Amino acid sequence: MAWTNVKWPCGHCGSIQLYGKASSRRARVAYEAGKKCMACWLVEQWEKKNDIRAQKENRYQLAADIAAGKGRRINVDDCVPVTTKHDPLADFSLDELLWLAPTFR
């Protein structure tokens, strides 16, 4: 058993626990370095399923704690503000949208 440092494409750094031969360890490091960290992946899954955990400010820390139980130590920010998706067209009435429509042709 060994730990090695990894930097994921999402920007998070951390370490993963490795088992087995050196060749399989290198393959695992390459695999991990080519995808999002488990914390980002978990938060993304929560957002897709409208899970209540996706609305918490400490959602990345919660996901990192879950990942730690699976052999991945991920350094994340303690709190990340929750952003709501805002539809830019919601600021306009239907009449305004119909009036603007011919200008976009």
What does this structure look like?
This protein is an alpha+beta fold and 105 residues long. The chain contains 4 helices and 3 strands. The protein has helices at residues 22-33, 38-48, 59-68, 94-100; strands spanning 2-7, 13-18, 72-75. It has a 3-stranded antiparallel beta sheet with strand order 1-2-3. Strand 1 and strand 2 form a beta hairpin. Helix 2 packs across helix 3 (59-68). The mean pLDDT is 82.
Features:
105 residues, 3-stranded antiparallel beta sheet, 3 strands, 38% helix
Count of extended strands? 3
The largest sheet, given as strand count, sense and whether it forms a barrel, is: 3 strands, antiparallel
Question: Could you name the ranges where pLDDT drops below 50 across 5 or more consecutive residues?
Answer: none
Tell me the overall shape: elongated
If you compute it from the alpha carbons, what radius of gyration comes out, rounded to the nearest whole angstrom?
20 Å
Q: Look at the helices and sheets and give the structural class.
A: alpha+beta
Number of helices: 4
| Termini gap | 62 Å
* Integer average pLDDT: 82
Helicity range? 25-40%
Q: What is the N-to-C succession of helices and strands?
A: EEHHHEH
Order of adjacent strands in the largest pleated sheet: 1-2-3
Strand content: 15-25%
